[in-house]
Design brief:
This protein is about 60% helix and about 0% strand. By secondary structure, the protein is an all-alpha fold.
C-alpha cells in the first residue's frame, strides 16, 4: 500500500467519525447501547486518545506509549468540546499521514503488548479498531432513538 492510499483510508474513516459526532444531539452525549458500555462520546474520545498515543509514540516520544492523554469525558464533556478535540486531533493526524513515506511505512514498531508490526500494518489494525467503535456508536445511537448518519459509503 502506498502512503496516499493509507491516508485516503484514514480520511474516509475520520469522515465517518466526524459525521457520527455531528449527529449526536446536545444533551445525548452520555447515551449508551446498554449498561456497562461506553457512551457515544466515550467511544469518540477513546479513538482520539488512542490515536494521539500512537502518533506521540511514533513521532514525539518514540517508543513511549502514554495512554493517559487527557482526551476523556472529564475534559471534553459536551458535544461542542468533542467536536473541537476531534478537529484538533484530525489536523494533527492529517499532518502525520501527509508526511508519511513508503520507507516509514515499512519500518517496524514495538507495541506495548509485544508484537512488532510494520507502521503500515499498525495503521490497518487502527482502521479496524476505528470501524469497531464506529459500529458501537451507531448501536448506541439507535438504542437512544437517534438516527445515525450513513457512514459506510
Amino acid at each position: 500500500m502506498k502512503p496516499a492510499e493509507l491516508r485516503r483510508l484514514w480520511e474516509d474513516r475520520r469522515a465517518g467519525l466526524r459525521k457520527l459526532a455531528e449527529a449526536v444531539p446536545e444533551g445525548c452525549e452520555d447515551q449508551r447501547a446498554g449498561p456497562g458500555t461506553f457512551s457515544i462520546t466515550a467511544h469518540i474520545l477513546h479513538l482520539l486518545s488512542a490515536e494521539k498515543t500512537a502518533l506521540d509514540a511514533l513521532t514525539v516520544t518514540p517508543g513511549k506509549w502514554e495512554w493517559r492523554t487527557g482526551i476523556d469525558s472529564e475534559h471534553y464533556p459536551r458535544r461542542g468540546d468533542v467536536l473541537a478535540i476531534l478537529d484538533e486531533q484530525t489536523a494533527r493526524a492529517r499532518n502525520y499521514f501527509g508526511a508519511l513515506t513508503e520507507e516509514q511505512m515499512a519500518a517496524t514498531v514495538k507495541l506495548p503488548w509485544g508484537v512488532e508490526p510494520t507502521i503500515e500494518v499498525l495503521w490497518v489494525m487502527w482502521l479496524t479498531h476505528d470501524a469497531h467503535h464506529c459500529g458501537s456508536i451507531v448501536a448506541s445511537m439507535r438504542a437512544g432513538g437517534i438516527e445515525p448518519p450513513e457512514i459506510w459509503e
